[in-house]
Amino acid sequence: MLEICNEIPDSCKWKRIEAINKGWSDDKKYYIRTTDDRELLLRISDIKQYENKKRDFEAIKQLDKIDILIPHPIDFGICNNGQSVYFLLTWIKGEDARTVFPKLSNKEQYQLGVKAGEALRIMHQIPAVKNQMPWSERFNRKINRNITYYKACGIHLRGADKIIEYIEQNRYLLENRPQCFQHGDYHVGNMIVTKPGELGIIDFDRLDYGDPWEEFNRITWCADISAPFASGRINGYFGHDVPALFFRLMALYIASTQLSSVPWSIQFGQEEVCTALRQAENVLKWYDGFETYMPEWYVSSPPE
């Protein structure tokens, strides 16, 4: 590890380096404590990822302008004798939101959801880079790919026909959608709660540009853990005035994600396949087999 770090500026001032074995990224991640007790996050990637990581570094730097709690980029470059790319960020000190929720009331979970929605809305103020492909064209390609991969994967999802039917009936909603900066993996697993109760957003490894409402495609992970949090996230994003069109599009994005998650899970083994199937079954239940576009867990006002 020390050899990899030697070429990183100021690495001589690091007194503690701990590997982080969490998440789905191929990056190697490390917690760093410096001699002056600063806490940092180090990500190491293969040199083949240089252009992608450079793009991500520049994109995350734009977030410095906005008032939300996120890791701030410090440095980026090549290390390990030209074999690796490093990405250095500030560290957010706190507890995984998933472990915090069981300690909170439903009302407190809802309020954290509102904070998550407000933070996402602020993030979406950053415009997409120029010359993006029209969203309808881009996402329809993704839908076609997801359907093709699902049908070819050999695993049967009960209710897949209902999911595909909803998708086909609602593709037209993708026309003329705006595009902006996207976190890319916005759900409770990438959120930290600090001791004062602030909500921090982490892991921008899948950042992208696209329809801001697509960011709700992974709210299923939130609703699995806390329906009040998931509802608060929607209400906070829209300032408690949610347009009906949003629910139709959120259902479309969630439907597409359920299809893609089944073939995606195969590479990680049977346990993850079972997780993908279980969540898809939950989604089908929430949407009554996609006979409705309003999930059963959603509430428009905070719990008592």
What's the quick description here?
The protein is α+β, with helices and mostly antiparallel strands and 304 residues long. 41% of the residues lie in helices and 16% in strands.
Q: Would you give an account of this structure?
A:
This protein is α+β, with helices and mostly antiparallel strands. It has two domains: 2-90, 2-Layer Sandwich (Phosphorylase Kinase, domain 1), CATH 3.30.200.20; 95-286, Aminoglycoside phosphotransferase (APH), C-terminal lobe (Aminoglycoside 3'-phosphotransferase, Chain: A, domain 2, Alpha-Beta Complex), CATH 3.90.1200. The chain is built from ten helices and ten strands. It has helices at 2-5, 50-61, 97-100, 106-123, 135-152, 160-170, 219-225, 227-237, 244-265, 270-286; strands at 14-20, 28-34, 39-46, 73-79, 84-90, 95-96, 180-182, 191-193, 199-201, 208-210. Strands 1-2-3-5-4 form a five-stranded antiparallel β-sheet, with helices on one face. A three-stranded antiparallel β-sheet has the order 6-8-9. A hairpin with a 5-residue loop joins strand 8 and strand 9 (199-201). The termini are far apart.
SSE pattern, N- to C-terminal: HEEEHEEEHHHHEEEEHHHH
Count of helical regions: 10
- End-to-end separation in angstroms reads 51 Å
Largest sheet: 5 strands, antiparallel
Tell me the structural class: alpha+beta
The chain-level mean pLDDT equals 94
Rounded radius of gyration (Å): 20 Å
* CATH architecture label name of the largest domain: Alpha-Beta Complex
Which stretches of 5+ consecutive residues score pLDDT under 50?
Answer: none
Order of the strands making up the biggest sheet: 1-2-3-5-4
- What is CATH's topology name of the largest domain? Aminoglycoside 3'-phosphotransferase, Chain: A, domain 2
Give the name of the CATH superfamily of the largest domain. Answer: Aminoglycoside phosphotransferase (APH), C-terminal lobe
Please tell me what the overall shape is. globular
According to DSSP, the number of beta strands is 10
Total of domains = 2
Share of β-strand residues: 15-25%
As a percent range, the share of helical residues equals 40-55%
User: What would CATH call the class of the largest domain?
Assistant: Alpha Beta
